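queue> pop job 88
queue> type: inverse folding (structure -> sequence)
queue> payload:
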C-alpha cells in the first residue's frame, strides 16, 4: 500500500484516485483515509473521481496541514480523463535579450510553450520540426511529461534560430530575426492528432496552419497568428481564421486582420465572429491580462501580480495552451466555460515571466498552481 495525503473532509466511501500519466486508459485505485497526525504537506498529480463520475478541473491537489493519510489499492480500468490536444507550431532555439539581461541557446517556439502550458491539464500531441542538433535537447526536456512527440519531424537542417529583444514599454519585440529551420517541413498529423478533440495552431506560417487545419477533425480549434503573416499571407490567414473556434490575437494583430484600426478592439474582435466558424476571440493585453470577446459579451481577466518580470517570451503561447488545456480537462467547448478557461490561460502565462525561456513553465508543472511560486499579492 502507498501512503498519500488528502484534504480533510473527503468521504472514504465516495472517492477514488486515478493516476494521470497519459491520455490512455489508466488504472483506478480505491482510497482509504485515516487521520494524519503529522500535518505534512505534499504535492501530487492525480484526478479525483466520484464513484458515479469524474470530478473535473482537478489534476493536482496541494495538501495542507490537518489533512488525512490515505492508502490506495488497485480496482480496475478507468476511461480517459481529458480530451487530447494536438499542438502544431514552431520548435526553436531562442536567443533572448530583455531589460533584465540576456540568455542564449534556449529551447523555445510556439509549439513548445503552448504544449507545456497545455500539458498541465491534458495529454498533448506535439507536432513541429526540430533539427538533429537539438532533437536530444527536446527529448530530454519533455521526458516524463504528458507530451507525445511522435509527430515531431527531425530534420537534417539546423533547428530554427529565433533572436529577439523585448521592450518592456510597449511589450512588443523591438527587434526580431529568424534563421535556419527546415523550409520544406509540412505538418503531417498523426492518426491520434487527426482525431484529437482539441487542436491548437501556434504562431507559424499561415500556409502551414492551413495545411494542418485541413487534416484535423477537432471539435475545438484555437489559432494564433503574427502581424508578419497577416501582412504577407493574408488569404491564408483569413482561411484559417474562418475555420477556428477561438482566435488568440494581440490588439495589433487584431487591427491588422480586420483593417479596423479606428474601431475599438471589442468591435474589431466581434467583426471576426461574423465570418465562418469563430465563436470567441481572446485579445491578449500583455501585462494587463487578456479579454474574451463573444457575440454577446466581453470578459476581462487581469494579469496576476508578478514579482519580477524577466522574459515575456512565450507568454502568449502559454495563454492559448492553458486556455485550451482547461477546456480539454473539463471536456467542454461552450462559451460559458471559456470564461473559466481564460483565467487558467492568463495565469498559466504568468509562469513564463519570471525566468528566461521555459524554465518557469517547467517549474509550474510540479506545483499545484502554475502561478503560485511566482506571484505576490494574489
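queue> result:
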Amino acid at each position: 500500500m502507498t501512503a498519500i495525503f488528502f484534504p480533510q473532509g473527503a468521504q472514504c466511501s465516495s472517492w477514488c484516485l486515478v493516476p494521470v500519466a497519459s491520455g490512455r486508459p489508466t488504472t483506478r485505485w480505491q482510497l482509504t483515509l485515516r487521520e494524519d497526525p503529522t500535518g505534512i504537506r505534499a504535492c501530487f498529480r492525480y484526478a479525483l473521481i466520484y464513484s458515479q463520475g469524474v470530478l473535473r478541473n482537478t489534476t493536482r491537489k496541494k495538501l495542507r496541514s490537518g489533512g488525512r493519510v490515505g492508502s490506495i489499492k488497485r480496482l480496475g480500468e478507468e476511461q480517459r480523463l481529458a480530451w487530447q490536444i494536438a499542438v502544431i507550431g514552431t520548435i526553436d532555439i531562442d536567443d533572448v535579450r530583455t531589460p533584465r539581461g540576456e540568455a542564449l541557446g534556449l529551447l523555445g517556439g510556439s509549439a513548445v510553450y503552448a504544449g507545456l502550458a497545455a500539458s498541465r491539464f491534458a495529454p498533448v500531441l506535439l507536432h513541429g520540426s526540430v533539427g538533429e542538433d537539438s532533437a536530444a535537447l527536446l527529448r530530454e526536456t519533455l521526458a516524463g511529461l504528458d507530451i507525445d512527440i511522435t509527430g515531431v519531424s527531425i530534420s537534417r537542417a539546423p533547428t530554427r534560430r529565433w533572436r529577439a529583444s523585448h521592450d518592456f514599454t510597449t511589450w512588443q519585440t523591438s527587434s526580431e530575426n529568424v534563421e535556419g529551420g527546415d523550409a520544406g517541413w509540412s505538418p503531417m498529423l498523426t492518426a491520434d492528432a487527426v482525431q484529437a478533440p482539441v487542436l491548437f495552431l501556434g504562431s507559424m506560417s499561415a500556409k502551414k496552419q492551413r495545411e494542418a487545419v485541413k487534416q484535423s477533425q477537432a471539435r475545438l480549434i484555437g489559432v494564433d497568428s503574427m502581424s508578419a503573416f497577416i501582412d504577407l499571407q493574408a488569404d491564408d490567414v483569413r482561411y484559417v481564421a474562418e475555420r477556428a473556434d477561438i482566435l488568440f490575437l494581440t490588439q495589433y494583430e487584431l487591427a491588422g486582420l480586420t483593417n479596423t484600426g479606428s474601431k475599438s478592439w471589442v468591435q474589431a474582435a466581434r467583426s471576426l465572429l461574423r465570418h465562418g466558424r469563430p465563436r470567441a476571440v481572446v485579445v491578449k493585453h500583455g501585462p494587463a491580462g487578456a479579454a474574451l470577446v463573444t457575440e454577446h459579451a466581453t470578459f476581462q481577466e487581469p494579469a496576476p501580480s508578478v514579482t519580477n518580470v524577466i522574459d515575456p517570451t512565450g507568454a502568449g503561447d502559454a495563454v492559448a495552451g492553458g486556455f485550451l488545456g482547461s477546456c480539454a480537462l473539463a471536456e467542454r467547448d461552450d462559451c460559458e466555460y471559456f470564461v473559466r478557461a481564460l483565467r487558467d490561460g492568463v495565469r498559466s502565462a504568468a509562469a513564463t515571466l519570471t525566468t528566461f525561456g521555459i524554465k518557469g513553465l517547467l517549474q509550474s508543472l510540479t506545483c499545484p498552481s502554475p502561478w503560485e511560486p511566482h506571484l505576490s499579492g494574489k
